Amino acid sequence: MTDGFTDLIDRSNTFFSELAQNNRKDWFEPRKAQFVDEIKKPAELFMTILAEDIARLTGIAHAPKLFRIYRDVRFSKDKTPYNPHLHIMWSQPGDARPAWFFGSAPDYLILGVGIMGLSGAALTQYRAYVDRHGDALAAAIADAKKSAEAEISDWGPESLKRVPKPYEPDHPQGDLLKRKALAVTAPLAGNWRTSGLIRATLGRAEGLLPVWRLMNEIGELKVS
Predict the structure, then answer these.
(1) Three-state SS across 112-135?
(2) In angstroms, rounded to a whole number, what is the distance separating the alpha carbons of residues 61 and 143?
(3) Do 186 and 150 touch, CB atoms closer than 8 A?
(4) Alpha carbon distance 211, 197 (integer Å)
(5) Is the pTM of this model over 0.85?
(6) Which fold has domain 6-218?
């Protein structure tokens, strides 16, 4: 049964398709109120409801965040001012902890889970975990691929060219060790309109939960 958020996706797809062709302030400003009323406010309600569901699913409170439509162009060659997509994140406190990610645009509708932008102690924890438990993590990702069409995302920093020291160059999980971020994303089921956006999103979260559980252990790992 639909939950009323179908319109959010349909209206945002229409709006962002037009924005992608007219990514300028003089186009957006007269339509800002439309964006707020038809996309931003419903998205805030959606993310608040999902935050409660994710907390029940994981046993851990996650804070929701709606990403801004305004792009940070200070260090980008692309100076277009707006993001033509709807992105939401649910995160928990602490370093090296996985977050949930919802993305909607005219060409995708996904839910993901991952640890982004690993550096310093968090990166050390991640590599130590992959060294010890990488087979289990890789198996969980493979299972999610079969059950939920999940894939490892290329979001985040570019992977290293070589397996980092002190790990062996032929480490069985060398590809995971090379990464500075790890995110796994899955498209929402094709019948999401019938089931409703909330149920479809939560269904994908349930499918990715084994991956989340292993990723969540990374933040608990003690590295000497």
Answers:
(1) EEEECCCCHHHHHHHHHHHHHHHH
(2) 26
(3) yes
(4) 22
(5) yes
(6) BirA Bifunctional Protein; domain 2 (3.30.930)
Q: What integer best gives the mean pLDDT of the chain?
A: 95
Q: Which two tokens stand for residue 18?
A: 């037009």
Question: What's the CA gap between 96 and 110, in Å, rounded?
Answer: 22
Q: How many CA atoms lie within 13 A of 125 on its CB side?
A: 21
At 117, give phi and psi (nearest 5°): 60, 50
Q: How many CB atoms lie within 10 A of CB 185?
A: 24
Q: Classify burial at 205, counting beta carbons within 10 Å of its beta carbon; exposed 0-12, middle 13-18, buried 19 or more.
A: buried
Write the pLDDT tens digit of every residue in 2-15.
678 999 999 999 99
Which strand (E) or helix (H) includes residue 211?
helix 197-218
Amino acid sitting at position 1: M
Residue 139 tokens, joined: 């198996």
